[in-house]
């Protein structure tokens, strides 16, 4: 049996945001498939975008704390900066 890795509070927070975004994206898809109102679809899409952005920022913040500031960093500041810039 495969052991489930333990995740940090920051990772849990990001994972919850991503799951929420997945649910919102499913709602957007369903709305489009059912001929939903354009304005409603746009609002749902904005919610998905916001959830994904917040998850991304949470992941970057955790990386800053865990990957770069640790005694044995696994990510360079330059790599983190490049990843953070990709969110913009």
TrEMBL record:
Keywords, comma-separated and alphabetical: Copper
GO BP field: negative regulation of DNA-templated transcription
Superkingdom in the source lineage: Bacteria
Transmembrane segments: none
Gene Ontology MF terms: DNA binding; metal ion binding
Signal peptide (residue range): none
Gene3D superfamilies: Metal-sensitive repressor, helix protomer
Protein family: Belongs to the CsoR family.
PANTHER family for the chain: TRANSCRIPTIONAL REPRESSOR FRMR, TRANSCRIPTIONAL REPRESSOR FRMR-RELATED
Name listed for the protein in its UniProt record: Metal-sensitive transcriptional regulator
Lineage: Bacteria, Bacillati, Actinomycetota, Actinomycetes, Actinomycetales
């Amino acid at each position: 049996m495969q052991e489930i890795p333990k995740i940090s509070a920051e990772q849990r927070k990001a994972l919850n945001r991503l799951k929420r975004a997945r649910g919102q994206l499913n709602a957007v898809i369903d709305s489009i498939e059912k001929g939903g109102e354009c304005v409603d679809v746009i609002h749902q899409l904005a919610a998905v975008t916001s959830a994904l952005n917040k998850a991304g920022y949470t992941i970057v913040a955790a990386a800053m704390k865990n990957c770069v500031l640790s005694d044995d960093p696994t990510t360079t500041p330059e790599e983190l900066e490049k990843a953070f810039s990709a969110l913009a």
